[in-house]
Write a structure and sequence with these properties.
There is one protein chain. Helices cover 49% and strands 12% of the residues. The chain is mainly alpha-helical. It has a 3-stranded mixed sheet. β1, α4 and β2 form a beta-alpha-beta unit. α1 runs antiparallel to α2. The longest helix has 25 residues. The chain starts with a helix and ends with a helix. The model has no long low-confidence stretch (mean pLDDT 92).
Length: 138
């Protein structure tokens, strides 16, 4: 569940970075750790906005959102299939632009050994709806 503090942090952080910078930072993710350029951006933000200061673990939770729709990402456990999947460039472009966190495609081993049979993923409900609409149209 999202807190009001997290939502206020994201609003202020987006305003400070600008839309493009915010989306880039959120899209890069925070797991397994923040990248150096993300740490620098956050440090600069916290200097200017100490009221939003938070721990690294809190930052990961606050930024676990879809960079496109700003919806909270939801957890789900999915099956892993053995094999490789090749998607069309049209689909990959649409996924990147319209539904980056649908997490509705099968998770495949891509030939790797010793993969678990199930894996945790994070998805955006708005992305899933957008993917469904795109699939129906294409």
């Amino acid at each position: 569940m999202d807190s009001i503090d997290n939502a206020l942090f994201r609003t202020a952080f987006r305003a400070a970075l600008g839309e493009e910078g915010y989306r880039r930072l959120v899209a890069a993710g925070t797991v397994p750790r923040l990248r150096y350029w993300q740490e620098v951006a956050l440090q600069k933000f916290f200097v200017r906005h100490p009221e939003h200061q938070m721990a690294v673990t809190q930052i990961a939770d606050a930024l676990r959102v879809c960079e496109l729709h700003d919806d909270l990402l939801q957890p789900e456990v999915v099956e892993v299939i053995d094999g490789c999947i090749d998607y069309s460039q049209t689909y990959l472009n649409a996924r990147r632009a319209t539904f980056p966190h649908a997490a509705a495609d099968p998770v495949s081993t891509e030939g790797r050994k010793d993969m678990p049979s199930r894996m945790s993923v994070w998805y955006c409900t708005v992305c899933r709806a957008a993917r469904s609409a795109w699939m129906n149209e294409n």
